[in-house]
UniProtKB/TrEMBL annotation:
GO terms for molecular function: hydrolase activity. The keyword Hydrolase applies. SUPFAM superfamilies: Alkaline phosphatase-like. PROSITE patterns: SULFATASE_1. Residues 36-301 form the Sulfatase N-terminal domain. This is Sulfatase. Belongs to the sulfatase family. Pfam families: Sulfatase. It comes from the Bacteria. InterPro entries: Alkaline_phosphatase_core_sf, GAG_Ulvan_Degrading_Sulfatases, Sulfatase_CS, Sulfatase_N. It comes from Aestuariibaculum marinum. Keywords: Hydrolase.
Amino acid sequence: MFYLKIIDFMIGKLFNKMIFLLVLHLASTISAQEKPNFIVYLSDDLGYKDVSVYGAKVVKTPVLQKLSEEGMTFNNAFVASPSCAPSRAALLTGLMPARNGAEVNHAFPSEGIPYLIENLKSEGYKVFAFGKVAHYRGNEKCGFDFHNDEQVNLYKNISKYFDSNNVNTPVCIFVGDRRPHVSWTKKMDYDPEKVDLPPYFIDTKETREHRSRYYTDVTGMDNEMGQVFEYLNGKLGENTMTLFTSDHGAQWPFGKWNLYEAGIRTPLIVKWPGKIQAGSQTDAMVSWIDILPTLLDISGIKVSNHLDGKSFASILSGKKNQFRKVIYSTHTGDDKFNVYPMRSIRTDRYKLIINLEPNAYHTNHSDIFRKDGAGAYWDSWYDEAENDVKAANIIQHYFVRPEMEFYDIVNDPNEQENLIENPIYKKRIDKLCKQLLNWMEEQGDEKKIYKKVYPITGPKPNAETIKNY
């Protein structure tokens, strides 16, 4: 009888333990199911005004239009830096370039700087990367559980992987489309005569043809994104947040590698059925460094106070309509092709830009190499400038900038009138300048120049002179 009681007691203990483990497993499963899946879709070199959602009249982007109608559209989203590697490093670390170490293009965060991908993984997420998501150092892949770096056939690669692999945990899937990065397709699906040009472009036949090719790539990106969304939504279900954005503006003059709106302002659209009001818009100012902290926050993961980025989940939920009071952006350079460092501070109305090397030429790959599908139109710009003062002034402003620039974004959205010498704005300029310089000091920004600049007392860089520079 004594032994029977012991056996009965042990069986009871075992049964209770099994029940406990079962409950624990169910609780864990339910908790995992409650965590949303994430799709982060990144375009490469896409100007925020070059999609229908933000007012484009010619180029067609129906998938983005639908995403906007089903989610929230941010009218004031900005990148940390208008070149690929610094922008993506800031996204994945939540730190600005001076703090994460990736200041120039094709650079990487400093050793020991953590990627926020690891935070998601620590809470049970599987994190995937398809296409161009980040710049990698050797075998370092930013902590992704799986990555496929092929930049073509994104839909095919994604569907092939998830059709062959069963994933039962919450997932975060980064998709990086290389379009509309140069070189642009040779196809012209848009009539060159009907494409629209910004007022600071020189209107030539070659410019219009390249614009048509650029727009064709934008629409191509939009089309394949639609395939990817349809497939992943079918796999992941409704508890999925979908986020679309671009790493910076397009490789056109005054866009990429510049701190003008065409360089740093980016499309940002977020959809989450039942959580984000469909068709909503916000004027709240947010930065790329805020994106991953927001995903962490939504997932119930504590966001470090040591990051530059912070969560804008309260904007997505509609609880708040304001976020950042100012946006900081930096650009340092791109090897020897673009050595023109600058810093900026932007409020909801004004922007101040400090050009750290105003006695040097601003230049980049487009005007130097003038390749087909990238910058070949520059030859026609020079031809036009020989007999057109306006065209000559556009080229002069492209290459030579003053030390400081100040713009009223509301009244001058294309930043054509530099108000830096206007006495009406002196107090405001002084205040913003002090604020920007203080921020740079706090960031540990050494204003480092990584390559020799091209002084305006010498010749403009070109494909020949740059070889031995």
